[in-house]
Amino acid sequence: MTAAPPLRTAARTADAAPAPYRLHAIARIRAEAADGVTDLPLLHGDGPFALRRLRPRGAQARVCTLNTMSAPHNGDRLRIEVAVGPDADLHVITAAATVALPGRTPDHSVLDAALRVDDSARLHWLPEPVISAAGSDLRQHTLIDLAGTARLVLSEQLILGRAHEPPGRLASRITVRRDGRTLLDQHNAYGPGAPGWDGPAVLAGNRAVGQLLVIDPAYQDRPPGTHILDGVPARAHGVITPLAGPGVLLTAVAPDAGDLRRCLDAALHHLDLRT
């Protein structure tokens, strides 16, 4: 008589090939002007997004985004949609840095933000840094649609690797359309597989890179001139350059997150912006 196969064989097979884990989540914010202040009629987030109202600052509404679980891992798809109605004023921050992590699937993760700012409205989009942990593969895209009289202050901070570890792969794209026409479309890639990212023409050994984008109709006729931020702090370097439209862009590199933040703060001070 032939013995029956052990019942644990199927369990072993299932354990050897676990199903990949993928998280799909979306958060939505809508701001509208009403009676001289900005209301938030829509504030909704799937896990891991938790959206919190902060104390308003005058007519400006303020929102903080919290990450309630570790995300994104490789394979995750996260998206934030923000709509700022006519004459509204919205300020959005995050409670902590976003850490891109490796996962059980070889697929890259996605972190998208779709921001729309209508006529005479203003959006401050100032999240904490995105940290690219070893083994992660994150692709993020920030797409901004602006009306002709809209104003925008946007910050992006990318930290390549945690302490004493190499970075993962991180690709970031910022696309700005104003009145339906492209004002800026910039793509950068860092980490394993990205050619030349650590060479002298790109980061030159630095591990923190950031951008500060300011769009304001007041710059249409008199944009700020090119300004080099060197030595603020001593190890960070940045340059403010006018765009081919009513805006300016700061690009900065630094050895770590602290120096990068101080460089961005120096740029805000130079541009006389209060956030």
From TrEMBL:
* GO cellular component entries: cytoplasm
What gene, per UniProt, encodes this protein?
A: ureD
Chief subcellular location equals cytoplasm
Q: What is the protein name stated in its UniProt record?
A: Urease accessory protein UreD
InterPro entries documented for this protein:
UreD
Name the source organism.
Actinomadura luteofluorescens
Which keywords appear in this protein's UniProt record, sorted alphabetically?
Chaperone, Cytoplasm, Nickel insertion
Per its database record, what is this protein's job?
Answer: Required for maturation of urease via the functional incorporation of the urease nickel metallocenter.
Entry keyword annotation includes Protease: no
How does this chain assemble?
UreD, UreF and UreG form a complex that acts as a GTP-hydrolysis-dependent molecular chaperone, activating the urease apoprotein by helping to assemble the nickel containing metallocenter of UreC. The UreE protein probably delivers the nickel.
Pfam families per UniProt: UreD (PF01774)
* Highest taxon of the lineage: Bacteria
Q: Which GO terms describe its molecular function?
A: nickel cation binding
**Which protein family is named in the record?**
Belongs to the UreD family.
**Locations listed in the record:** Cytoplasm
The root-end lineage is:
Bacteria, Bacillati, Actinomycetota, Actinomycetes, Streptosporangiales
